[in-house]
């Protein structure tokens, strides 16, 4: 009788435990998207801006994660996939699809991608995010830590995908400027931000198109003609906006009369001196510089997130008094820098700081000109090489350019989502003995301990 009662109690207890487990499972399932994020940097917690953007998606969006798998990026690819899953959990209209890019050449060709990317597709529209652009070194990167900007860029792409607002940016040609073919990455990034691009040869067209939101002059090697200067001034007086990024030419002091006159309209003076900065120089030499930011809507967020551009052959700029525009310095070199005016000597790798002839640091490298009522009018930079394909992925180059163009275009949907700082991952390499020890402990020893405990419990209960 006692033995039968014991078996009955065991059965009732087992049924009760199973019932409680089923009820608990049903309860947790009823909570939907409820989860606790116990990671130190809240890796799985989305911002309110992202949650709002996700909620506003009304039509199906396919999110394709196309990655190239190798030992160096496995963890980073997983981090991207985990982030996308956080989006798809919160709206059934978002569908995640993962592919190995090397096994899907048709998809790579369809979307024009060559490296790991996220593609957002809605109907016949799509946006592409370069996965490499989501990761930047934190600080000097010596500890292996990095910043992850995936949430900000994915949310921005999601918003741009459904937005009908577009802007037009026209790039001037005919003066040996950087062409759109040399700035393919920038062009693609602008298009992902709903900014269309086209080139303009002003001496043939006769005028700047009326629907141009921003006129860009990137790295000119030759001067504007008098007629071109007149047309650009007409465009600007009719509400146009200007983005000019100076190039480098040996005879710029004597040949850039009209370019100098154009930027002087906004209170900026071209000193025709190449900036040399020994303090902030990167490993490439003192003509390559990571500048410091001034305070402005274009740069404040970048400075906060430590996303600094890397410039080369930058032209020193100064300002003059004028009462039509508010001029704000965007970036400058360090105190231990100077603008070299001896261009002939510089071309022979000879440069010395001549206190009387050279521009003494800190040297301004960019200005933003706003109207008196706070509207953006022009951005003048002393460098342009950092926009070409071979340089744009360095440091914060791409982020700085996109912030500049978005500011001039008066795009109001820019996001401010702080990047997550992740600790560096280390790979542990095991020798044969260590591998065997781990195998024995995990596969043999631990299971054997539980088997022995189970046998002892069975033997004890059998004796009772």
From TrEMBL:
Keywords associated with the record: Membrane, Transmembrane, Transmembrane helix
Membrane-traversing stretches: 12-34, 438-459
Residue stretches making up the ABC-type uncharacterised transport system domain: 169-368
SUPFAM superfamilies attached to this UniProt entry: Class I glutamine amidotransferase-like
InterPro entries: ABC_transp_unknown, Class_I_gatase-like, DUF7088
Keyword check for Membrane: yes
Keyword Transmembrane: yes
Pfam families, alphabetized: ABC_transp_aux, DUF7088
DUF7088 domain: residues covered: 41-125
UniProt protein name: ABC transporter
